[in-house]
Amino acid sequence: MERTAIFGGSFNPVHNEHIAIAKMAIEQLKLDRLIVMPTYIAPHKDASSTSAEHRFNMLKLAFEKVEKVEVSDYEIKKGGTSYTYLTVEHFKNTLNGELFFLVGADMLKDFKTWRYPERILSACTLCAFDRGGETTDYQLERQNFINNYGKDFILLKGGGQKQSSTKIRVYNELGLDITLQTPKKVCDYIKENGLYLGDKYSEFIKKSLPQKRLVHTANVVISALAKYKELGLDKRKVRISAMLHDCAKYIDPKTVEGFSVPSDMPAPVVHAFLGAFIAKNYLGITDEDIINAIRYHTSGRAKMSALEKLIFTADMIEDGRVYEGVEQLRKLFYLTDFDECFTTCLKEEMQHLLNKKQPIYFETLNAYEYFVKRKETKDE
What we know:
The protein is α/β, with parallel strands linked by helices.
């Protein structure tokens, strides 16, 4: 009996971890065939995704020498929104043998939101790939599956490299190296076809920041975009806020006409307020929520919006940060509770300033009083 698995996704673009997952799935599931299935339009993705043709071409390049892999254009030719239940039912009816469907383990918690999840599980066995196990509570998800569907999923192990299509897009947009994240032929294809280019905001950032700060900025964008849906935020606003949060980091306030530094403002806070001024007066941003997310990403303030809290938090937990306790903050951010992560970040910021005997801006004190002290009082 043949064993076939479908590996679906937007693949926008394909990265090295996709290839590693495919190879390990073939080995661990003892597959005769692995069908890599790019979506035409994914239900949970933006319709503005890079064209299906480009994504399909990049997949062909990435998997051209991987045995037992077929890149299928079934969903692309079918057109419209790509629903998994229709795809697995089609292949269940046209292929002989067992059928499996691969997903990243991070998709388990969202599986209940897919169209007709029970029909998916009736046609195939779901296989979740653990890429390190940092963001998914498998015991909880396994129990949820059994309770909701009467069927378990298979957990596949291996890989663990933290790569994402979002990272490739953002890094490429900022002119950063992507050759360690996707095959050379795919990198060349992206360059030759002018894919994943930036806008006036990323162009401004590329001219304003050195390499190290560009990497930090990219990582903040990636972290923030990982949470925008959960928090009900607008993706574009999140991206712009994160992209510009440090836009004035290396600009001398004295050279910016119309901006003056308040006498009571600590030096580490100045770039955030200057950045908000530049975003509004030089880059033409009129959305006050974006302006405030940039302005308060360092100091915080009382009554911060969800966008302000996200940029403040993403700035502290992005992958390049190295300090005691940051891994626990990342677990809170990705796995447990965003608000808990945010308030813990505020505590961390306050403690850092106290330990360094640095002046504390009044807005930071206000934020601490509003979000931390009030929460502690409620919990008592």
